[in-house]
Amino acid sequence: MNSYSILDRIGNTPIVASKNLNTNPKVQLLFKLEGNNPGGSVKDRPAFYMIKSAMDRGEITKETKIIEATSGNTGIALAMIASLFELDLELVMPENSTKERVQTMRAYGALVTLTPADVGIEGARDYAESKVKDHGYVMLNQFGNSDNWKAHYMTTGPEIWNDTDRQVTHFVSSMGTTGTIMGCSTYLKEQNKDVQIIGVQPTDNSKIPGIRKWPEQYLPKIFDKEKVDKVIEVSELEARQTARELARKEGVFAGMSSGGAVAAALKLIKTLDEGVVVVIICDRGDRYLSSDLYD
């Protein structure tokens, strides 16, 4: 009998077709269910690649104190994988993060530090960087680590290409660290330069966990605007409503950032004569139950 690690279950997530939200019969709207990863989100992929690659290069060992700022999903993925490699990990996140996320990170054995909500993820990043500068910690730095986007170049992009029988015409993804969209864009454009890459950002004054419109000084270093063909903005209300409709009409239980991505895709397909549109459903809805998303 073969022996499998839980790490072998990262990736190869299913793609399912929209049955009710898709109003354009000439377009196939597909959801890639990243919540099926063992850690519950798309972030399992870059978390594994960042840790494993850093270990292979000798940049981190069991003696290294690792720190990372996170809005949630990356932290959970890092905590899960760090536990398997017996690594010392501190995660820093805003204090208004959902209870489920904090508890899950701690369940995996990570130290969780909460920073003031009013300074957001930027404040968490500043705190982590101060620990690196003044206390000898090592940061994986998902915002500037090329292993983030390479994880999607090596896995997510090829899966989409193969699972759509090379027919994908449009790829839609929320933009946070931008690793998903950078890696998938790089791979899909290599296969077919005409594949359109659509990024999703919040409208001004909208707060959607997992989707950001970064101030210039915090723009992820891995981001290359030339790899995104179009940006569609969605409001917090649109993201919330679409997340709820995903659960009620499609049986897809996901978070607000996934609702935002699907809201953008629904805007997109209204403009298309035909196509195969793939949207990243980045996580599961059960880690938002203590919030008001599904009230």
Automatic annotation (TrEMBL):
Q: Which InterPro entries match?
A: Cys_synth, Cys_Synth/Cystath_Beta-Synth, CysM, P-phosphate_BS, TrpB-like_PALP, TrpB-like_PALP_sf
Q: TM segments?
A: none
Pfam family, any one: PALP
Q: Which SUPFAM superfamilies match?
A: Tryptophan synthase beta subunit-like PLP-dependent enzymes
Report the CDD domains cross-referenced here: CBS_like (cd01561)
Listed A to Z, the keywords are:
Amino-acid biosynthesis, Cysteine biosynthesis, Pyridoxal phosphate, Transferase
Is the keyword Transferase assigned to this protein?
yes
**Taking every annotated instance into account, which residue ranges of this chain make up the domain Tryptophan synthase beta chain-like PALP?**
7-283
- Tell me its EC number(s), please: 2.5.1.47
Q: Which domain of life is it from?
A: Bacteria
Q: Which Gene3D superfamilies match?
A: 3.40.50.1100
Which of the residues bear the PTM N6-(pyridoxal phosphate)lysine? 43
The pathway is: Amino-acid biosynthesis; L-cysteine biosynthesis; L-cysteine from L-serine: step 2/2
- Kindly list the positions annotated as binding pyridoxal 5'-phosphate: 73, 176-180, 257
Its BP terms in the Gene Ontology are: cysteine biosynthetic process from serine
List the GO molecular function terms: cysteine synthase activity
Q: Catalytic activity, per the record?
A: O-acetyl-L-serine + hydrogen sulfide = L-cysteine + acetate
Does the keyword field hold Protein biosynthesis? no
Q: Which cofactors?
A: pyridoxal 5'-phosphate
Checking PROSITE patterns in the record gives: CYS_SYNTHASE
Q: Which family does it belong to?
A: Belongs to the cysteine synthase/cystathionine beta-synthase family.
Protein name listed in UniProt: Cysteine synthase
Q: Which organism is it from?
A: Galbibacter marinus
Q: Which gene encodes it?
A: cysM
